[in-house]
Amino acid sequence: MSRIVFAWELGGGYGHLGPFRPITERLVSAGHQVTIIAKDIARAAVAFRGLDVTLFPSPVKLSKAVPYDPAPSTFGHLLQNMGYRDPLELNAMIHVWRNLFQVTRPDCLVLDHCPTGLLAARGIDVPQFTFGTGFFCPVDEFPLREMAPWRPMDKEERIRSESQLIDRINTILESNGQPTIARIGEIYSSVTANLLTTFRELDHYPYRQQGEYLGAWSATNSANNRLLPETPWPEGDGPKVYAYLKPHKSLRELLMWLSGQGLPTLVVGDGLDGAGLSKSLRSNVKLVSHHLNLRSVGETCDLAIMNGNHGTCCEFLLAGRSMLHIPLTFEQAIFSRRTVELGVALDASPDQPRQIIQQLSALINSGTHRQAAQDFASRHASFRAENGIDRCSQRISQAL
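Structure for MurG-like transferase, as requested:
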């Protein structure tokens, strides 16, 4: 029996936990001991319910960075916002991660959006994997490129900023007797392998040369998919619309427009009806508070609306469905742009209700985007989530 530690530090939602659930099922069945170190232990308890795993909370920055960069250009700037600007705070987080690894004594580490965990693990002689979408695993180059074309930054400024960050990190690593780094990307390139739960054409870093692409499976469409309810489509006329959204400024106007158009619409999300929104909608729009069988939804809907959610988007692309993205976070904005460049989606600002409705109207009438989504589905017609899950499990087992 081997001790496997899965760690999650940054980001939010079940998208960091759900995809590892079926991996954990296989590892536990094989007799391994799995420990989960999670940013959100309440979500982790739900995601791994019924499995014999040990839970620990991950050390994360709780307060907002001062100064805070509201428009980070590179991955390094994201790290600055997450505690890497203050050497005392960074040292404390690395120290706690090292304590956790001493307690759990891992034979293998699997880290999802966990840069500080990766730094703490430097020098630990066990297989180490990164796990997650491309966004969580920047390409190893110096200086780091801008993550988004709409946030350009002078190369000399990127060199200066990243060099300062590297010096700050290395001071701490040297004090711990750990191997230092020459580049921020080296944190990710020095592991056993980068297990990318995405498809190459959807990678946040489209110029990546290395990495093992496993495809994607959503948090709700793994082995428990058969337990999810089928799609209860409401009555209505026109294309069936599936919306997976979080509350945002333009949500009411969007749903009122869908209601007025009479389109049969399913809306899934937490906290969507806090203001009694459903009372203002016609029967063709149905708000649902629980997850649905995405495979069934993908087969029966005509298009989807979401916030740039990677896993859900992949499910619908595999079903050949085009979509509208209303991104709420930087990562979602980058991913949405990738799908727009691929021709399978349109995007809009959450603060611009007219733009959202215009883009949705264009998408409903667009055969081009529908065809591009169907082309994606055809290219990946042989993909099965179970195959990606098995490959990932086998990769970890082989390393052990």
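The radius of gyration is 21 Å.
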